[in-house]
């Protein structure tokens, strides 16, 4: 009988977004000494300007036939919520072809079945963080989904029926009265119960503070260049700091995952789907999140303002901020809102959401012993970050299979 492998003592996590910090926190729950390295700072990638929805019922695979049709129709429309850069690299074209091949009803249902265990555990993982001392609140509130015509809700109803059939608790009702923040251009509203929202920036700051308070180190400005074997185990090399020694490494660097993970045998591409957001003024408080499917724009309460997040720009992850995308979001939602001051735009932001061609994240071990991956969550890195961290930390520290993570094998084709 062989003895169980000794759990790693020192773990380095690359990436200080929601996925990386949550993984670090749950690794500490198992007794690991954790160092988090980030190329910039806490939450500076795709997490900070996220809409802040904690909406597991909406966390479904991105590749699906309706989105593909919408994307093709909008290629030449500068105001389309789906936008392709006119200068696409060959790797991006290859990604889009693979994405299109997976945009079938059958593939979407398989992906939904894979995501459902994560979706079902998502909010409980946030509760564990709160019970463990992360001093930031999540807010219970339904999501209001607005449509410009009666009957336009059929697609959303069909999708949520599939989510319910897959095993989630989906409570959906139609509202008879349509009022603010919707204008009279909105003729039908669905109310999706059982969801939450959060201020991502505040939550990430609190999560980072808890990791530090429990003895973890977070090193900003530490862009990881390589992970190698060296004296005493793994060596994590950065461009500006001395190497970090580790018994295990988690790569949670979002859209920058391909460069680091390729040498560990991960071949599935990760493409940046750049999302834009900003805050706007309000005439009255917004009590719950709002979603406008036709514009693919989400609105979320943010103190006395509202965060407006939308667009999916397929472009280089490091491309400069494009103010035209913010203007396009404003034009797309202005006719449908009342009491939102879209002339008072502040905090414009862009972040590279990491997309995979099959719409499923990459979570688990690589071919390089001791090196693990956590990324590719697309638009749902905030919602699914804590449950990802919880499950991956268990896998890293026990070296035992975690059934919920099997569909997200980073080595899949």
Automatic annotation (TrEMBL):
Keywords per UniProt = Oxidoreductase
**Domain FAD dependent oxidoreductase as annotated: residue spans:** 10-394
Any Pfam family matching the protein: DAO
Q: Which domain of life is it from?
A: Bacteria
The answer on whether this UniProt entry bears the keyword Oxidoreductase reads: yes
For this protein, the record's InterPro entries field holds: FAD-dep_OxRdtase, FAD/NAD-bd_sf
Q: Is the Nucleotide-binding keyword given for this protein? A: no
PANTHER family cross-referenced by the UniProt entry = GLYCINE OXIDASE, SARCOSINE DEHYDROGENASE-RELATED
This chain belongs to the protein called: D-amino acid dehydrogenase
- Please give the organism: Pseudonocardia adelaidensis
């Amino acid at each position: 009988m062989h003895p169980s492998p000794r759990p790693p003592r020192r773990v380095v996590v690359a990436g200080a977004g929601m996925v990386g910090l949550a993984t670090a926190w749950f690794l500490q729950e198992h007794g690991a000494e954790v160092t988090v390295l980030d190329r910039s700072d806490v939450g500076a990638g795709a997490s900070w300007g996220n809409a802040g929805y904690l909406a597991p019922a909406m966390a479904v695979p991105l590749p699906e036939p309706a989105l593909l049709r919408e994307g093709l129709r909008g290629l030449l429309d500068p105001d389309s919520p789906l936008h392709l850069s006119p200068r696409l690299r060959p790797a991006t074209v290859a990604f889009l072809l693979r994405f299109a091949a997976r945009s079938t009803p059958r593939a979407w249902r398989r992906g939904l079945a894979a995501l459902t265990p994560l979706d079902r555990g998502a909010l409980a993982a946030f509760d564990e963080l709160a019970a463990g001392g992360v001093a930031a609140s999540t807010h219970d509130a339904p999501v209001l989904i607005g449509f410009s015509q009666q009957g336009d809700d059929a697609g959303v109803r069909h999708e949520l029926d599939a989510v319910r059939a897959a095993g989630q608790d989906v409570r959906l009702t139609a509202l008879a009265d349509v009022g603010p923040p919707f204008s009279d251009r909105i003729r039908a509203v669905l109310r999706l119960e059982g969801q939450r929202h959060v201020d991502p920036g505040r939550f990430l700051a609190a999560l980072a503070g808890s990791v530090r308070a429990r003895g973890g180190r977070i090193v900003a400005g530490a862009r990881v260049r390589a992970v190698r074997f060296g004296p005493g185990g793994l060596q994590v090399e950065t461009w500006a700091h001395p190497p970090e020694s580790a018994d295990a490494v988690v790569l949670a660097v979002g859209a920058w995952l391909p460069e680091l993970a390729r040498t560990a045998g991960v071949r599935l591409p990760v493409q940046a789907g750049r999302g834009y957001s900003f805050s706007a003024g309000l005439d009255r408080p917004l009590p719950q999140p709002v979603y406008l499917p036709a514009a693919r724009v989400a609105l979320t309460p943010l103190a006395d303002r509202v965060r407006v997040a939308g667009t999916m720009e397929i472009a280089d992850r490091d491309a400069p901020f494009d103010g035209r995308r913010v203007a396009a979001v404003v034009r797309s939602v202005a006719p449908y809102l009342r009491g939102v001051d879209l002339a008072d735009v502040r905090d414009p932001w862009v972040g590279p959401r990491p997309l995979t061609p099959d719409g499923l994240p990459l979570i688990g071990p690589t071919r390089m012993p001791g090196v693990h991956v956590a990324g590719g969550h697309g638009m749902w890195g905030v919602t699914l970050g804590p449950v990802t961290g919880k499950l991956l930390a268990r896998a890293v520290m026990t070296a035992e299979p975690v059934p919920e993570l099997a569909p997200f094998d980073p080595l899949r084709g």
